[in-house]
Amino acid sequence: MTEPPHVAAVRESYDTVAAEYARRYPIARVDPVARAMLGAFAEIVHGPVADLGCGPGRVTAFLAERGASVSGVDVSPEMVLLARRAYPHLRFSVGSMTALDTGDGELGGILAHYSTHHTPPGWLPIVFAEFERTLAPGGQVMLATHTGDGEHLRPAQAYGGRPVSYESYLLPSERIAELLGEAGLAVTARLDLAAGRRPGVAFLARKR
């Protein structure tokens, strides 16, 4: 598959801001209620877990500390480099959630923690189909993301004025749940998040 333009934009942007992002967002910045849901995900998931869009690895490590057999994947080589330096005992690799380097049914769980909102809505069915393909039957997904009424954001700078070219797509939570269901991922829990600058949602879903 030819790489979609949005993937290249995300890679280039996060390579640029990686160090500043890691400095600004330690695990302590994650909302305590959202951290509790991450803990619940670690408790219910069985088998290998892929943290997709893992960034500097802080959430990957959080899951590992709670017993999950987890590895991280990120499209940004700079983010992966930071993650490997910070958590040398964990495995991190460069990859895209639009085409995962994982066999059918190999995963017990997938975490997408604020890593899908840069994906154009037309590509989300492809991403969620990859989730479904790589999960074993009964496998678990936790997806947390920003939400909105369909806003399309095009920031020129981020994280201390560094140039970025990625875009963000803020969909209603109901639409995200529909897309998960259409991909064969049944939502089992939902947490609406009001903390921070933007509203968000966290879903737990299971492969049918």
Which whole number gives the mean pLDDT?
A: 95
The CATH C-level name is Alpha Beta
Helix content: 25-40%
Q: Compute the number of strand runs.
A: 11
| Proportion of beta-strand residues | 25-35%
Superfamily (CATH H level) name: Vaccinia Virus protein VP39
Radius of gyration: 16 Å
SS-derived structural category: alpha/beta
Biggest β-sheet: strands ordered side by side in the sheet: 3-2-1-4-5-11-10
InterPro entries: Methyltransf_25, SAM-dependent_MTases_sf
GO biological process, one term: methylation
Keywords: Methyltransferase, Transferase
GO molecular function: methyltransferase activity
In short:
By secondary structure, the chain is α/β, with parallel strands linked by helices.
Name the features.
single chain; 208 residues; alpha/beta; two-stranded antiparallel sheet; 6 helices; globular
How would you describe this structure to a colleague?
With 208 residues, the chain is α/β, with parallel strands linked by helices. It has one domain (5-207): Vaccinia Virus protein VP39 (Rossmann fold, 3-Layer(aba) Sandwich), CATH 3.40.50.150. Helix 1 runs parallel beside helix 4 (77-86). It has helices at residues 5-24, 32-44, 58-65, 77-86, 124-134, 173-182; strands at 49-52, 70-74, 92-94, 107-113, 135-146, 151-153, 157-158, 162-163, 168-170, 185-193, 200-207. Strands 3-2-1-4-5-11-10 form a seven-stranded mixed β-sheet, sandwiched between helices. Strands 6-9 form a two-stranded antiparallel ribbon. It has a two-stranded antiparallel sheet with strand order 7-8. The radius of gyration is 16 Å and the shape is globular. Helix content is 35%, strand content 28%. It starts with a helix and ends with a strand. It is built from six helices and eleven strands. GO terms for molecular function: methyltransferase activity. It comes from Amycolatopsis alkalitolerans. InterPro entries: Methyltransf_25 (IPR041698), SAM-dependent_MTases_sf (IPR029063). This is Class I SAM-dependent methyltransferase. Keywords: Methyltransferase, Transferase.
